[in-house]
Amino acid sequence: MDKQSLLERQRPSPPRSGRKATLGAITCLLITVLWFLQGWLLVKPGLSSEPLSPLEEVLRKAPLIDGHNDFPIYIRAFYYNHIYGQNFSDTATLIGQVDFPRLQKSRLGAQFWSAYVECPAENEHPKEQDTYYEAMHETLQQIDLINRLMDRYPSYLRRASSAADVWEHHRDTSSTAISSLIGIEGLHQIANSASALRLFHNMGARYVTLTHSCHNAYADSCSPEKPLHGGLSSLGKEAVHEMNRLGLMVDLSHTSVATQRDAFETSQAPVIYTHSAAYALCNHERNVGDEELLSIQQTGGIVMVNFFPGFVACSPNATLHDVADHIVYMGEFIGYRHVGIGADFDGMGFDNGPDGLEHVGKYPDLLEELLRRGVSVEDVSGVAGANILRVLEEVEQVSHRMRGEQPLEDKVKSLFV
C-alpha cells in the first residue's frame, strides 16, 4: 500500500451529524436552482412549456416557401424598375397582391422570384437567335432588379443560393427576412445560348421553366396547341442535360404534355412544376394530368399548386377551399411529399386571387385549412416548404456528380466570313 493510501485510511471520518447537514445543504441548493430554472424557462421567449399549435409546429419544422411570385414584372410594368423613389414598405404604395408588410405577415421563409419576360411576337421564328436578344436583355434587367430589391430592403429580403442557405436562414431566429431565390420563366429568355443559361445561374437563378406561352427552339408550350417539335427538340434535350449539370431545377409549368413526358425521360434529376394545379379537378391546359402526376411520384419531383382562379376552379370565382382541394387531391393520389405551393401572386393579370387567398398575407390560412382537413403536421410541413428543399438538394447532388462533364458550348459564327 502506498503512502497516500495509508494516510487516507488513517484520516478520521466526519461525524454522522455533519454528513447529514452537508447533504441537507446540497439538497436545498438543488431545489433552489431547479425552482429558478423553471421560472426562467416559463418566461424566456421560444422556450415556453406550453405546447405549440399545429400551425406553429408546421412552421417550426420547415420554412414556408412559394415557388413562383411575379412581383418583379409588376415593378417593371408600373414603376419601370425604378425603386429608389418609392417606398415598398408602405402598403399604400402598391396596389397588387404583394408588398413587404404583407410578406412579413405571410410567415414566408423563402420565395422564388420570377425574372419573367414575355414571349416575342408570334410571327417571329423561334429558332432565330436574333428574335430573342431583347428578351435576354430584359431578363438581365429583371435579375438585376431582384438583386437591387434585396440590397434596398435587407430587413425584408436576403439572398439564398442553395437549399442549405434556406435551412440556415430558417434556423436563424434573429431575422424575419425572406430567403430569396430566382426563377427564369422560359428558355426564350436565354436567346438560344447555353452561355446565357450559365450566366443566369451564376446570377442566382435556381430554376428555368422550359417554355412560357410560346414554343421556343428547345420545347413546345401548352399554348399554342399546334406543336413545333412534338416535345423536346434535340437542343432541348441538351439544354435539360446542361441544367442538370449546373444544378438548375427543370420547371415544366406552361409546357405541353409531350414536352413534360420527354423531360421525365431526359432529366437525371427530379423535375418540378412551379405553378400548376390538378387537371382532374380543372381541365385547363396549364394543369397536370394524372399520368404526369404519377411520373412526378416515380421520379421524385414536386407540383407546386397555383392559386389562379382559372386554374383551380375553371372560373373567375375561386376560394381558399378550391386551392386546398387541389393540394389534397394530389397528396392523396401521389403522396404529400410531391406537393408544394406556387401561388403566382402578381402574375394573375388584373384578376383577384381566390377568396381567402387574396394576397401574400394569407398563406397561414391555407395551412390551417389543410390541418383542419386532417392532413398531418409532417405532411403539411412538407407542402409548406420541406418538399421543394428536398428536390433542390437532390438537384444539387446530381449537379455535383456531373461537374466533371464538359459544359454545353454555343455555336458561334466565324469572324472571317
TrEMBL record:
Compositionally biased intervals (Basic and acidic residues): 1-11
Signal peptide annotation: none
Any Pfam family: Peptidase_M19
Enzyme Commission no: 3.4.13.19
InterPro entries assigned to the protein according to its UniProt record, in alphabetical order: Metal_Hydrolase, Pept_M19
Alphabetic keyword roster: Dipeptidase, Hydrolase, Membrane, Metal-binding, Metalloprotease, Protease, Transmembrane, Transmembrane helix, Zinc
Catalysed reactions, as listed in the record: an L-aminoacyl-L-amino acid + H2O = 2 an L-alpha-amino acid
Residues annotated as transmembrane: 21-43
GO MF assignments: metal ion binding; metallodipeptidase activity
A GO biological process held by the record: proteolysis
Cofactor entry: Zn(2+)
Annotated stretches, region: Disordered: 1-20
PANTHER family to which the protein is assigned, alphabetical: DIPEPTIDASE (PTHR10443:SF12), MICROSOMAL DIPEPTIDASE (PTHR10443)
Family of the protein in this entry: Belongs to the metallo-dependent hydrolases superfamily. Peptidase M19 family.
Protein's recorded name: Dipeptidase
Organism in which the protein naturally occurs: Ramularia collo-cygni
